Each structure stands twice: as C-alpha cells, then as structure tokens.
Amino acid sequence: MPYFTWQDKGLSEDCHSLAAMAARFEEAAALMRRLDQDGFLLEPQGGQQHIIHTDPAVFAAFGFLDEAGPGRQLELVES
C-alpha cells in the first residue's frame, strides 16, 4: 500500500514571524482535512506517522511519493 511519512520537523523553521507560522499550520491543517475527506488514513508505524491510501491511483493523483521499500518502488518502473 503506498504511503508517505508526515513529518512536521521543518514545518515552520523557515518562518520569520508568528503570523507566518500560524499560516503554515493552517495550510497543513487544511491539507490534513482534505486528505481525510478523500479517504487517506493515518497508520502509526515504528514511531512514525504514515499516511496511506488503499487506492494507489488516488495516492498518485495528489503527487505524493510512495515511500514503500525498494522492491515496491521497482514495481513502478516499466522495462
């Protein structure tokens, strides 16, 4: 199942004001709400937050990069 890892470590490190930080957090929250509405799920895995979708086409439509292992990645490469 395709997934990406949500990391907020650098979410606001480049912001120069509290207003900029607030805007960045609001943008992230809006994205989380949209993902939820479109059927994405949160799957805690090994201390990380993986965001998954059961339909690879929906996952790809958002432009996310699949962080599945190398074997899974190779399936995406056509020879």
What is the H-and-E element order? EHEEHH
Alpha-beta classification: alpha+beta
Compute the gyration radius: what is it?
15 Å
Strand order of the largest sheet: 1-3-2
Domain count, please report it.
1
In DSSP terms (H or I, runs of 4 or more residues), the helix count works out at: 3
The total count of strands amounts to 3
Q: Outline, from the CA principal axes?
A: globular
Distance between the amino and carboxyl termini: 22 Å
Proportion of strand residues: 15-25%
Average of per-residue pLDDT values: 82
Poorly predicted regions are none
Largest sheet: 3 strands, antiparallel
What attributes does this structure have?
single chain; 79 residues; alpha+beta; 3-stranded antiparallel β-sheet
Characterise this structure:
It is a single chain. The protein is of the alpha+beta class and 79 residues long. The chain has one domain. The chain is 39% helix and 18% strand. Strand 2 and strand 3 form a beta hairpin. 8% of the residues are buried. The mean pLDDT is 82.
Topology:
Layout: E1 3-6, H1 18-37, E2 41-45, E3 48-52, H2 56-61, H3 70-74
Antiparallel strand pairs: 1-3, 2-3
Summarize the structure.
With 79 residues, the chain is α+β, with helices and mostly antiparallel strands. It has one domain.
